[in-house]
Amino acid sequence: MSDRTVIKTGLTLAAIAAICTALVAATYQLTEERIAANQKALLEKALQPALAGVFYDSSVSESRLVVQPPHELPGNDAAIVYRVFAEQAPVAALFAVTARDGFSGPIRILVGIGFDGTVTGVRILEHRETPGLGDKIESSRTDWIFQFDGRSLGDPKVTAWAIRDDGGDFDQLTGASVTPRAVVHAIRDTLLYFDSHRDEIFSLEASGEGE
After folding, report:
1. What is the pLDDT of residues 67-82, one digit of tens each?
2. Torsion of CA 173, 174, 175, 176, to 10 degrees
3. Are 192 and 73 in contact (CB under 8 A)?
4. Rounded CA gap, 145 and 120, in Å?
5. Is 123 exposed, middle or buried (CB count within 10 Å of its CB: 0-12, 13-18, 19+)?
6. CA 85 to chain centre
7. Do 179 and 134 form a contact (C-beta atoms < 8 A)?
8. How confident is the model at residue 107 (pLDDT cuts 50, 70, 90)?
9. Could you tell me which of 100, 74, 79, 69 has the C-alpha nearest to residue 178?
10. Residues 129 and 104: beta-carbon distance below 8 Å
């Protein structure tokens, strides 16, 4: 094979490689954008159930805060806060927090709170509680979690934010008290945090880190 043929073959292979690289890069960019859009849509859909009855016109997932520990929210890890707006005015906040004292481990909870301090909805994000007992905190299994809708620190008073076995106002689950106790306390502590940090929460830059 002559040197000219070798050079020509090398140039051809290099051109093919460059074209393939460009195609792969373009495909990756398009795919990455599509994946990001799908992930955002799924997140927005997952957040909606905790905003029952709340009118808003903002993209919830785009107004996100990360509250790093130590903080006064439930859990020792970072808490995620999504701020919700209507015509640029704050109307609610969603808190993804962790109840540390579940029966089988931490319970990840989404707590929605209206600007007036009223619970807009609560959903369980993740848990390892006992099937048939503690897992009844899930909205797909029972309506237990819906008893918090519309409640606030004044309804009932702070000391009554407990299950009935502990002298509080909230139902527990048949055969399970540790799991509902952990959830009730986590919601109460989130409400207390919101009450003390409401203005700060809505004044921080999105995607920043709180205290």
Report:
1. 999 999 999 989 999 9
2. 0
3. no
4. 12
5. buried
6. 17
7. yes
8. very high
9. 100
10. yes
Select from 140, 151, 211 the least CA-distant residue to 187.
Answer: 151
Amino acid at 14: A
- Beta strand 107-114 pairing with 64-67: unpaired
On the CB side of 16, CA atoms within 13 Å amount to 6
- In order of 51, 107, 151, 159, 161, the CA distances from 136 in angstroms are 21, 13, 20, 24, 19
> What's the predicted TM-score (pTM) here?
0.79
Tell me the per-residue pLDDT of 118-164, one tens digit each, with 9 for 90 and over.
999 999 999 999 999 999 999 999 999 999 999 999 999 999 999 99
pLDDT in tens, 172-203: 998 889 999 999 999 999 999 999 999 999 98
- The runs of H, that is alpha helices, within 48-177 are none
Q: Kindly state the tokens that stand for 21.
A: 């690289």
SS3 125: strand
Whose tokens are 């969603």? That residue is 94
Mean pLDDT across 16-27: 65
Tokens of 39: 């992930």
Q: How many residues are given for the chain?
A: 211
Closest CA to 192 of 113, 136, 91, 101: 113
Beta bridge partners of 65: 81
- CA distances for 142 relative to 36, 70, 114, 115, 123, angstroms: 33, 34, 24, 28, 12
